[in-house]
Amino acid sequence: MSYLDLPLDIDAMLAGLRPWIECESPTFDIAAVNAMMDLVSGELRAAGAQVTRFPGPPGLGDCVRGDFPHPRRGEPGILVMSHLDTVHPVGTLASLPFRRDGARCYGPGIVDMKGGAYVALQAIVALAEAGIETPLPVSVLYTSDEEIGSPGTRDLIMEQARRDRYVLVPEPGRPDNGVVTGRYAIARFNLLAEGRPSHAGATLSEGRSAINLMARQLLEIEAMTDADCTFSVGVIEGGRWVNCVPTSCRAEALSMAKRQADLDRGVERMLALSGSRPDGTRFTVERGVTRPVWEPDAGTMRLYEVAAARAREIGFQLSHASAGGGSDANFTGAAGIPSLDGLGLLGAGYHTLDEHILVASIIPRCQLIAGLLT
């Protein structure tokens, strides 16, 4: 039997995907993420994998590795790497329930990236059930904090990835049905505005609002965006009582560039915003998690050529490109480990209440991953 003949059934796969979507797992909810890791650990064991669970970093959920039976197990092989955390808080199912609506299927985290993670696992299981042995041993790694830049799992990711020869990442496929062979560089920043307190009613003029300072800095930061490097502020929090002039305001910013040199210049511009003001206020920028630029090398392009050949056998043309938005392939690809990203399902609405997959992409993408593994 060939990988093209695997008995893949869309309805069965959607039924199997549903529990993954309905097990909500936002990054900062340790119990929710660990419940998702419990679910996937059970499915790995049922598929015959040896499961290793790694305790989560402080404030974050656990990670799980599964190693599948193989005559060459223990030798460097293929690591299929996914994250199971999402940006959707627990309760999102009330407004974004798992549901199929014609050509689309909706749910929190379904395209980014539980759908791809699930389909990749089904490709491994289907090959085993069909008695098709892969040339190299296959393992999976599920991580818990990719949506916040993988600050707690980067070392684990690299430690595990270096055990293998190739890394496959089933993040969402490109809209043109392509895959990702490189990713832009991304830096995160922690911002702090410090003001001077006063009573907002009785002595307003004596105070200096940290929120006011942050608002002005926010506009300055986002105005720095150009064709080479983007800047955005996505989290902001300040003040505790409306009758007090706020003395502190915190925010988080994100910068993205296609080239590392452009990001480095962006980092310099951000850090230069730190300093005290003549009115006694202060603004501080601290660099947070950074994802290095990943540019395709010969190893990654050889992986792509194999994938493109498999796609032609399946019946479609597979394009490739570098992409914005970070993934853990930023780390493995930049480190020179042949990595292929964007192998997951097609869809849209990432990180919104319109998040969905295209149902028609399930079988071809599962075949594509199975074909790569063989």
Short description:
With 374 residues, the chain is α+β, with helices and mostly antiparallel strands. The protein has helices at residues 10-22, 30-46, 110-129, 154-161, 210-223, 260-271, 298-314, 329-334, 362-373; strands spanning 50-54, 63-67, 78-83, 99-101, 104-106, 138-143, 166-168, 179-183, 185-194, 229-238, 248-257, 275-276, 282-291, 320-323, 339-340, 347-348, 356-358.
What is the element layout, followed by pairings?
Elements: H1 10-22, H2 30-46, E1 50-54, E2 63-67, E3 78-83, E4 99-101, E5 104-106, H3 110-129, E6 138-143, H4 154-161, E7 166-168, E8 179-183, E9 185-194, H5 210-223, E10 229-238, E11 248-257, H6 260-271, E12 275-276, E13 282-291, H7 298-314, E14 320-323, H8 329-334, E15 339-340, E16 347-348, E17 356-358, H9 362-373
Parallel strand pairs: 3-6, 3-7, 7-15, 8-14
Antiparallel strand pairs: 1-2, 2-6, 4-5, 5-17, 9-11, 9-13, 10-11, 12-13, 16-17
Helix pairs in contact: 1-3, 3-9, 7-9
Strand order of the largest sheet: 1-2-6-3-7-15
User: In terms of quaternary structure, what is this?
Assistant: single chain
SS class: alpha+beta
Gap between N and C termini, in Å? 12 Å
The helicity comes to: 25-40%
User: Could you name the ranges where pLDDT drops below 50 across 5 or more consecutive residues?
Assistant: none
Spatial shape = elongated
Annotation, overall tally of beta strands: 17
Specify Rg, calculated over alpha carbons. 23 Å
Which whole number gives the mean pLDDT? Answer: 97
What can be said about the biggest beta sheet?
6 strands, mixed
Note the beta-strand portion: 15-25%
From N to C, what is the helix and strand string? HHEEEEEHEHEEEHEEHEEHEHEEEH
